[in-house]
């Protein structure tokens, strides 16, 4: 028997896989003797290379159709043009990324909360004649509105999604 041939069991062991996994690879045997099949390492390597090439080709062109390079270049150029237009609008201040808008709105909301927090003490300081029960009422109302303002941060994503959806509907 040729010394460079291995039976299925030995080939699978040398590859560190089970014989069932080796069967799934679909490597064509180099030689059959009785019930035993023998494989060359070269056949296994070629099988694995073909398998990877098929995977990569399916990722790049899943339908297996011929690629029109001119069309692909035109589409790429168009995407690059659109990307550059968006970058220019951002640099000119006519547009802002959604993440940046969200951060700005979150900062504004935290500032509103701080302003509401100082409202009752400021009123008490400027108008000491106001009864404490009125100041307490102002504090309780302020706290309610602070809580609402702090929860707006949680709703920003939903609000932004709604704005984007409405903008897409107009286009």
From TrEMBL:
Which superkingdom is the protein from? Answer: Bacteria
Protein name per the record? DNA-packaging protein
Organism equals Alteromonas australica
From which lineage does this chain's organism come? Bacteria, Pseudomonadati, Pseudomonadota, Gammaproteobacteria, Alteromonadales
């Amino acid at each position: 028997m040729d010394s460079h041939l291995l039976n299925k069991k030995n080939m699978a062991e040398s590859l560190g896989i089970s014989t069932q996994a080796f069967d799934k690879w679909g490597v064509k045997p180099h030689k059959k003797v009785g019930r035993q099949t023998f494989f060359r390492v070269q056949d296994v390597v070629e099988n694995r290379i073909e398998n990877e090439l098929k995977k990569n080709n399916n990722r790049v062109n899943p339908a297996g159709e011929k690629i029109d390079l001119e069309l692909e270049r035109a589409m790429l150029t168009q995407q690059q043009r659109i990307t550059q237009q968006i970058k220019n609008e951002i640099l000119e201040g006519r547009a802002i990324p959604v993440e940046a808008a969200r951060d700005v709105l979150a900062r504004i909301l935290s500032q509103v909360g701080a302003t509401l927090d100082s409202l009752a003490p400021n009123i008490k300081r400027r108008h000491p004649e106001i009864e404490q029960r009125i100041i307490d009422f102002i504090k309780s109302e302020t706290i309610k509105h602070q809580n609402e303002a702090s929860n707006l941060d949680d709703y920003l994503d939903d609000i932004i999604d709604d704005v984007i959806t409405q903008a897409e509907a107009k286009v």
